[in-house]
Amino acid sequence: MQFSESLINWYSINKRSLPWRETKDPYSIWLSEIILQQTQVKQGLPYYEAFLSEFPTVFQLASADESKVLKLWQGLGYYSRARNLHAAAKYIVNELNGRFPSTYKELLTLKGVGDYTASAIASICFNESAAVVDGNVYRVLSRYYGIDIPINSSKGTKEFKTLAQELIDKKDPANFNQAIMEFGAVQCKPHSPDCTICPFKDSCEAFNKNLINQLPVKIKSAKAKKKYFNFLVFISGDGKTILEKREGKGIWQNLYQFPLMETEAEMDFDAFKRQIEAHEFAKDMPFELSLYNEKSVVHKLSHQHLYTKFWIVNVESLKTEGVSIEKVDQFAVPILIGNFIEAFSF
Questions:
Q1: Are 204 and 143 in contact (CB under 8 A)?
Q2: Ramachandran bin of 308, using left for φ above 0, alpha for ψ from -120 to 50, beta for the remaining angles
Q3: Upstream peptide bond of 216 is cis (omega within 30 degrees of 0)
Q4: Max CA distance (Å), the chain
Q5: Which helix H or strand E contains 297, and what residues bound it?
Q6: H or E element, residue 323
Q7: 65: helix, coil or strand?
Q8: What does R_g of the chain's alpha carbons equal in angstroms?
Q9: Half-sphere exposure (Cβ direction) of 20: Cα atoms closer than 13 Å
């Protein structure tokens, strides 16, 4: 098919040199695909290299403590990816005797692996004709064919997958999949793509009908909720602080944080001090309170925006065992807290 041939030809000339393109090892490809979910290449590359250095094989990843995996992941966000990565590694080692699944259907049994990731690994490592559909692919296909079906609708998901499967080069699925993703990443960009140098400009519906900025179509998600987080950074006379492990489900599951007080709105100094006086860690004990950041740090997540303040609470001693201040940077924490730790320098 002309589209596939032209795309692969473009890729052979314009592809970026990336380490995961130099291998067919399913472990390495799987690792890169998980890291690059919702993460740009320039941000994900150092993490890919760090993980391969620390865990060269799936056996070493499986045997690692989860806290070590989460610490290495720190800063990438969407920590469920790291937890799923670790769980899948254990499954491969313990249930599959270290043999990596080699088909699209088998790959879907791995925790954290969906249609896109299974298709990428199956095609790149095992030459299976399984078409990938990610944000880049949606954008390329919707523009080229002038498709205005919302990409985040059930109908859109089904139709774009069907179209991609029809277009994939059955003889060279690995290069086709990588080509269409690369084309979306470096040529058919989300904003202001340079269509004058595009090899498809003469046949692209969006270009010829001036619809580049209107495609792809996406149903708007619900407005993000505002939450107000107040972290209590205790500092005792003997150089200790308090870190708590987040239990239960949630984006920061099994990560550590300073004691958290969530309020309905931002509070002034005096009102918040009264709140702390009733807090279990500071009740009936003298303390000195100071606010580290007058202006809230806004941490934006997909479904909520966290307006965050860090309150420094100096006490003679802690009511709990505590953690040595010198060891705080060894714990896996959300990047929001990691940035504070780095800036505050205790």
A1: yes
A2: beta
A3: yes
A4: 77
A5: strand 297-300
A6: strand 323-324
A7: coil
A8: 24
A9: 26
The model's pLDDT over 279-309, given as tens digits with 9 standing for 90+, comes to 776 777 789 999 999 999 999 887 899 999 9
Looking at residue 1, its pLDDT comes to 59
pLDDT in tens, 307-341: 999 999 999 988 888 999 999 999 999 999 999 99
Q: Which residue has the tokens 């708007």?
A: 220
pTM comes to 0.86
Give the HSE-up count for residue 269: Cα atoms under 13 Å, Cβ half-sphere. 10
Say which residue the tokens 């949606």 belong to.
138
The token pair that represents 92 in the structure block: 């491969």
All domains in the chain, ordered by first residue:
2-214 (1.10.340.30), 225-344 (3.90.79.10)
Q: Which amino acids are annotated catalytic?
A: 33
pLDDT score, position 281: 67
Report the mean per-residue pLDDT for the chain.
93
Tell me the C-alpha distance between 237 and 270, whole Å: 24
Contacts of 301 (CB under 8 A, 6+ apart): 224, 251
Write the secondary structure of the chain as one string of H (helix), E (strand) and C (coil): CHHHHHHHHHHHHHCCCCHHHHCCCHHHHHHHHHHCCCCCHHHHHHHHHHHHHHCCCHHHHHHCCHHHHHHHHCCCCCCHHHHHHHHHHHHHHHHCCCCCCCCHHHHCCCCCCCHHHHHHHHHHHHCCCCCCCCHHHHHHHHHHHCCCCCCCCHHHHHHHHHHHHHHCCCCCHHHHHHHHHHHHHHCCCCCCCCHHHCCCCCCCHHHHCCCHHHCCCCCCCCCCEEEEEEEEEEEECCCEECCEECCCCCCCCCCEECCEEEECCCCCHHHHHHHHHCCCCCCCCCCEEEECCCCCEEEECCCEEEEEEEEEEEECCCCCCCEEHHHHHHCCCCHHHHHHHHHHCC
The count of other CB atoms within 10 Å of the CB of residue 222 is 6
The 10s digit of each residue's pLDDT in 236-256 is 999 999 999 998 777 788 999
